[in-house]
Amino acid sequence: MTTAQPLIRLVRVGTLPYATALQWQRDLVAARSAGRIPDTLLLLEHPPTITLGARADPAHVLLSPDELQRRGVAVVASDRGGDVTYHGPGQLVGYPILKLSHYGADLGRYLRGLEETIIRTLADYGVPGERAPGLTGVWVAGGRAKICAIGVRLSASGVTSHGFALNVSTDLSGFAQIVPCGIADRAVTSLERLLGYAPSLDAVSTTLVGHFAAVFGVEIRTEDGVQWELERPVDGKAVGQASGLPHDPPRERR
Length: 254
Prior knowledge:
By secondary structure, the protein is α/β, with parallel strands linked by helices. The chain has helices spanning 18-33, 65-71, 107-123, 191-195, 201-216, and strands at residues 7-15, 40-45, 49-52, 74-77, 84-87, 91-97, 138-140, 145-154, 160-167, 187-188, 219-222, 230-234, 237-241. The N and C termini lie far apart (42 Å).
C-alpha cells in the first residue's frame, strides 16, 4: 500500500516589503501551529532591504541610516537566525512554513535539505553548488562565493519560518553596503554573473519547486489564489479572514 506524500501549498506572492512578509510569516506560523492551514511555501521577492538576524552585529551595516534612506534601502530587524544580509529584486526568496515533526524533527537535517534543494537547482543550470564547512548556505567557486543565503527560525510549537534567498539576477552592489552574513573574506555572486545571462525568476522557481518536492518527499500544489480561514485578533476580537494571506495582498508580480 502506497502512503500518500505530505501536501504543501505553494503561494507565489510577487514583490512584497520585508516587514509585511515578516508579519505574514508570524501569522502563518500561528495558524499552522493551530492546525488551521497546511504546510505552506511562500516564494517572493523583496525591494532593496537590509535585514539583521538574531545574531547580527550592527557594525556589519557599512552605511549610515541617512545614506541608506537616500538610496531607498529599508533596514529591518528580523527574528531569523544569522547575521546581516541583503535582499533585492532578482533574488528568489523562499519561506517554508512547515511543521518540522513531519520532516524528521531535526533542524540541522532541515537546513541541509534546503541546501540540497538549491544545489540541485543550480546543477540544472550547469553551476556546481556546494556547502562550505562550518557555514550555512550554498556556495560556488570552491566556497569562495556565496550564491544563496539560508537563515531560519523554529517556533516553540515546532513550525519553521524564514528560509533561503537565491541570487538569480540580483544587483550585487547591494551587498557592498554590508558585511554579508558577517563574512568579510568571501564574495557574493549570482546565477546571472556565473552564466553571463539572467534566467527568469519564474523558470528558476519552477525548477526549485520540483527539487524541493523531491528532497522533502512532498507533493506541492500551486494555489496563487489560495483561500483559507485565518483568525487574527483585532482590537481584542477574533476576526475571520478568508481572502488568501492575511492583510492586503501585494499588487506587484514579477
